[in-house]
Structure formats: structure tokens, C-alpha cells
Amino acid sequence: QSVLTQPPSVSAAPGQKVTISCSGSSSNIGNHYVCWYQQLPGTAPKLLIYDNNKRPSGIPDRFSGSKSGTSATLGITGLQTGDEADYYCGTWDNSLSAGVFGGGTKLTVL
Amino acid sequence: EVQLVESGGGLVQPGGSLRLSCAASGFTFSSSWMNWVRQAPGKGLEWVANINQDGSDKYYVDSVKGRFTISRDNAKNSLYLQMNSLRAEDTAVYYCARGFSSLADIWGQGTMVTVSS
Fold it and tell me: Given CB atoms, is B42 within the 8 Å cutoff of chain A?
């Protein structure tokens, strides 16, 4: 059971938009920035979003992040087949004094 | 190029020990928090431990406290994870990752640890 809660899977057609939610508590998302990671099959995770809504250099603006209270959301527009991957939210948890991740969401582009 | 390269994984019997290493290059290693994150086969990411810039501050996930020790050698630009009393549930790919924002930005390619008799 992960500290952060994500839907196990989402799907949408190419060109469409999808959102992935990440729910936590005041000890983690409520008091810390959220990061989002993309993990393509057989590869290491890659940072997509940091500080809730900032994109590292090289990440297209099709990817966006937002946070409200103890929840965060990753948005992906103009879906491409290459976006099929597992997506994870993560942050720090004050109560646990540990890093925490969501359980991951598998994105299928139909 | 910023790069992290893990090594030291392998097959170990339950109760055994293993030391993972992570070689950093392309950035000022001594200025960065560093993390270990693992992923069991077919499962999600699990944060394991982190360490501050001079090694004076360390945090661990509850499941490895007392068994794993994170350390670093800034002169060698290297991060380590000493794993003792290994259990089957420690079987995973272990990634080192540079501390950034609330967690990490740059990740290594990972090293596989298998605990089995």
C-alpha cells in the first residue's frame, strides 16, 4: 500500500488529453513539492515535472503539473504512442522522514 | 554529461550481504543530496534511503533500518549502499538518484539484486 494514491491505469486515444491524479496528506503533498516521473518499459525513471508544475529542460510542454492542497495532477495533451509508460508521483513525507511514491499509473494510448 | 552508474548487484543468499556503488560524473557530487530507490520485479518505485552533502544526515525507509547503511565518498564522487541481513523481499533493481526538489532528478540505469537460495 503506497503512501500516495494513484489510479492503476488510464487510457486515451492518440491526440487526446489525459490526467493522472496523486492523492496524499498534509505530511507529504500538503507541505512539499511534488515530482512526476515517466518510466518507459525496461528503462530508469525520468523526471517529468518538479516543484509541482515545472518542466526540466527538454520536456515538452504537452506535460503539465498542478497541485491543490493534498493532491496533485499530471496532465498530458496531444497523446502519442510513445507516451505509453508508467507514471509515478513522489515527494517527501515529514511524518515518515522518508521519500514516498505513488503506486504508479500505467498509461495506454489506444 | 551528468551521469550515475550503479554497480555491485548480483545473486546473494538470504541473510547475506552486498555493497552497491554508484559512480557520479558531470556535476558537483559533493553539493548534492543522493538517494537510493528500488523497484521489485513488476512493482512500483520504493524510496530506500538518502544522504546529505557531507554524509552527516541520513534517512531510511522503515523496512531497511538497521540492515542497510548509506554512505558516500566525495573525494571519489561515489555513493554506496551496504546491505546486510538480506531478505527475499529486498530483491529489486536498485537505482541511485541525485537529490533535487523534493526527491530526485537524475537516475542511474540501475543494478539488479536477487536474494535467493
Answer: no
End-to-end CA distance of chain A: 28
In the structure, what pLDDT confidence band is assigned to residue B20 with cuts at 50, 70 and 90?
very high
Question: Please, what's the b/e burial string for A54-70 (b: 16 or more CB within 10 A of its CB; e: otherwise)?
Answer: ebeeebeeebbbebeeb
Q: Do B105 and A56 touch (CB under 8 A)?
A: yes
Comparing alpha-carbon positions, the chain A residue that sits nearest to B57 is: A97
- Which tens digit of pLDDT belongs to each residue from A51-60? 999 999 999 9
B100 to chain A, any CB pair closer than 8 A? The answer is yes
CB contacts, 8 Å: B104 with chain A: 35, 47, 90, 99
**Which pLDDT band, with edges at 50, 70 and 90, does B95 fall under?**
very high
